[in-house]
DNA sequence: TCGTAAACGTGAATGATTCTTATTTACGAC
DNA sequence: GTCGTAAATAAGAATCATTCACGTTTACGA
């Protein structure tokens, strides 16, 4: 938002939160995290804006873990690890999917591929 | 089931269907596909058995597409393409995630990785 | 000050999935 | 064969994440 404007206050807070955290939160988590600072925030607003950000490509969905969709405000491609015990998602910045695989996938699928997700699943140290 | 036994009739039909198709169906799709042959099949049975198969490692979940979970009866690791238009999931048998990446991920995540999913997203020829 | 459109809060609606409960089924012991 | 038991099931209610509908608030420009 423009400085001094109160327009889009909540929308911006939601996006800022998603961009700041590395927790890959759910909508509920975003809501719970912002509620103390923004007492009149509603869950509907969180869902509405998250869905807007997704459309605009400002955030990405990481899919659902235990039936709850998770989001990432860091849109440059990276690899994830999901703990099947506690549901924690963490970034694996040390690994990369070679860009050229997208082209290979396009060819094999006979489709227009625009991105891919590489996700490892297992149990973190705390969960086993 | 043992030959000659009628025990586990529906359970086996569900597993057989999942192993036979390459459609990566949802629970609803499994139900609709088997209903004609098994008129007294119920959706609850499909969900119950799918959840059992998942636990036992007989099938894998591919995550949700448009809010609906999808399953694969082919449990050896392979790559998928998901069309964001029509929701079709197809196999990319020509591509592989090198086994040794699991070890690298274990190391970086400090966790016990047991499998990974590589999924490309885009639009199939019919959808654009 | 007024009009307008975007953003929002609230609560109802939706829909996939899970749970509950009573029923059916197969099989072993007698 | 009959009875007891445990697994599998059908049916429908319940749950819960997400979306929708609608009336209200807010900011800004005319």
Please tally the β strands of chain A and state the result: 5
Strand content of chain A: 25-35%
* Helical content band of chain A: 25-40%
Name the overall outline of chain A.
globular
State the major sheet of chain A. 3 strands, mixed
| Spatial ordering of strands, largest sheet of chain A | 4-3-5
* SSE succession of chain A: HHHEEEEHE
Measure the end-to-end span of chain A: 45 Å
Low-confidence stretches of chain A: 1-5
CATH superfamily label of chain A: Winged helix-like DNA-binding domain superfamily/Winged helix DNA-binding domain
CATH topology of chain A: Arc Repressor Mutant, subunit A
Largest interface: A-B, 35 and 35 residues
Identify the CATH architecture of chain A.
Answer: Orthogonal Bundle
Helix segment tally of chain A: 4
Total number of distinct structural domains of chain A? 1
What Rg of chain A, in angstroms, do the CA atoms define? Answer: 17 Å
User: Mean pLDDT score of chain A, rounded?
Assistant: 92
Oligomer: homodimer
Layout of secondary structure:
2 copies of one chain form a homodimer.
Chain A: H1 9-20, H2 27-34, H3 43-56, E1 60-65, E2 68-72, E3 79-83, E4 89-92, H4 100-109, E5 111-124
Parallel strand pairs in A: 3-5
Antiparallel strand pairs in A: 1-2, 3-4
Helix pairs in contact in A: 1-3, 2-3
Chain A binds a DNA duplex (30 and 30 nucleotides) through residues 5-11, 26-28, 40-45, 47-49, 51, 64, 67-69.
